[in-house]
Amino acid sequence: MCHIHHMNVNDAHILIVDDDKKYALELKNSLTEIGEVDVVHSEEEFNTVFAPYKYDLIFLDLRLREAKEGLDLLENIIGEDPLSVVIIISGYGDIATAVEALDKGAKTFLEKSKVSPQEICIRAEHALKESVQERRIRQLERSSEIDEFVGDDTKIQKIKELINGVAQDGETTVLIRGETGTGKELVAKAIHRLGVRSQWPFVTTALVEKNIETIVSELFGHEKGAFTGAVDRHYGCFEEAHKGILFLDEIGDLPVDIQAKLLRVIEEKKIRRMGGNKDINVDVQVVTATNRPLEEMKDDGRFREDLYYRLNVFPIHLPPLRERRKDIPLLAKYFLSHLRKKGKTQIKNFTDNAVELILNYRWPGNVRQLQSVVTSAVLVCGLEGSQKIAKRHIEPLLLPHYALHGSDSQSVFKTLAETELRMAENALIRSGGKKTEAWKLLKYKNRFSMLRRVKRIMSEHPDLAEQFPELKKSYS
């Protein structure tokens, strides 16, 4: 039996192009559990059914009426749909032709006499998983829909529906709940981008670790001379967000003394600057977020009950990454694809053991941590000269220290810089201090690449330079 995991079997649409009708029927019967299978026996029939992006997987016979006619079709398929997954099947084991097929974009080359229908089914399962993920990533990259939330988990699909609904309303107060790194600000931005207020400002402020005077000034503004240091009039976030959306992050950290004032502004749609004597009308959709237990805080008096209910009109809960595990490989590949698209790397994929590792990790920093780890792994992998991100590239990034600080980009890159300098110094020592040999051990393009890289890291992190005196001496 052939089973597809992490996708709906009915989603798979497969095309078989083979003039051997008996073999095509056998192949179709072995693939019907995967999804819908179409069969054609000639180029003419192929032209009547094929359309770009229609098929997830195509089995293409190398020889139809003429030798290598299948290769001509392959070129047409890839030319119209570069993401097509094409498996060449042939009764002839011609190595040169197989290489040519792979060069033209085929996924793999199978010789009919050496591969059973069951083995082909397994190959199809593997190819389909990659096809579905790759198409999903491309769709997300070019879609005008919500592409901030990569994933096929039902929870994520529901969140997208909620976002679309409240965005079109434009008035309802939204409360976004979720752990650190789950993407609360992305939800707020999506509500703005997709909504009726998209042409007006999106203003954000975090309310954590600020004194009362600072928060009041940030939210409502102040007049010149309102307090010591107020040398000019300052417009607050509510005024800046007029007609748009105001995103109040970490709402659970808002001091009780200010909560009544915020409630009044939301209900009356008027603010008064500190030191001012005039009410100012504001038209703002308020979106808030927190990872704190507001219900407990409400019950013990740390959060006003009336404000809680006013903010919680439209709640959106973001699940932690550990509760949507099947999305983890898709997310990782999406982040890798994004880096490749920006020209940051040529690496295209992960090894199977790397995928297994990220699937089994708990991701305390959630999606933000996963993105940081993929970014870091790309740098480590590129430094090594590998073609795929492997388990060994990711494992050191999941140590307790990194897991704790993984969402802090400065911490991430400083850790990587230190790792790179340590590798460079070890290479220098192993080469007997010969810079002309050290760069080869680390697979830099040439010794000048290593020189420039080491100098750049030392200039950006002078404190690290002091930790590697031999390196500093040789490359200063």
What structural category characterises the helix and strand content?
alpha/beta
Number of helices: 22
Name given to the CATH homologous superfamily of the largest domain: P-loop containing nucleotide triphosphate hydrolases
**Rg from C-alpha positions?**
29 Å
Total number of domains: 3
Report low-confidence residues grouped into runs of 5 or more: 1-10, 142-146, 401-409
Morphology call: flat
Percent of residues in β-strands: 5-15%
Q: The biggest beta sheet, please? A: 5 strands, parallel
- Secondary-structure arrangement, i.e. CATH architecture of the largest domain: 3-Layer(aba) Sandwich
CATH class of the largest domain: Alpha Beta
Quote the distance from N terminus to C terminus: 63 Å
Structure summary, number of beta strands: 14
Residue share in helices?
40-55%
* Annotated CATH topology of the largest domain: Rossmann fold
What assembly state would you assign to the polypeptide chains in this entry?
Answer: single chain
Taking strands numbered 1, 2, ... along the chain, how are they ordered across the largest sheet?
2-1-3-4-5
What is the overall pLDDT average? 83
